[in-house]
Write a structure and sequence with these properties.
By secondary structure, the protein is α+β, with helices and mostly antiparallel strands. It has a single domain, classed as 60s Ribosomal Protein L30, Chain: A. About 40% of the residues lie in helices and about 15% in strands. It is globular. The two termini are about 25 Å apart.
Length: about 120
């Protein structure tokens, strides 16, 4: 997919999914592309997770660019289904923004440390 701009280490995906599962109960997350976009624009997102199988990709192609603009870390998981299930949805979702990881705060910081740095090109 054109918008997936780096390969997420395979061992990181289960950690991201687990962190989202914990964050949904004790923290604050925004589900879906529109909510994630707003969260990025308000600079309240700590991490944005995007599904790698979104079609058409135009739906989410702006998210990595927005994240770079606002210096917000982002990552990818293989499927919308996986992403949806991790936050308790019965359907898939294209994007999740973690605003407050709650009890998963440490896990969140761990994951962010393992992600490539995406700084806005000057």
């Amino acid at each position: 997919m054109g918008y997936v701009d780096y390969e997420v280490p395979k061992e990181l995906v289960p950690q991201i999914i687990e962190m989202l599962s914990v964050a949904k109960d004790g923290g604050k997350i925004k589900k879906g592309v529109n909510e994630a976009t707003k969260s990025i624009e308000r600079k309240s997102a700590q991490l944005v997770v995007v599904a790698a199988d979104v079609t058409p990709e135009e739906v989410v192609v702006h998210l990595p660019m927005l994240c770079k603009e606002h210096n917000i870390p982002y990552t990818f998981v293989p499927t919308k289904k996986e992403l949806g299930v991790s936050v308790g949805l019965e359907v898939g979702t294209s994007a999740i923004a973690v605003e407050n990881a709650g009890p998963a705060a440490e896990k969140l910081q761990d994951i962010i440390k393992k992600l490539p740095k995406h700084e806005k090109k000057k």
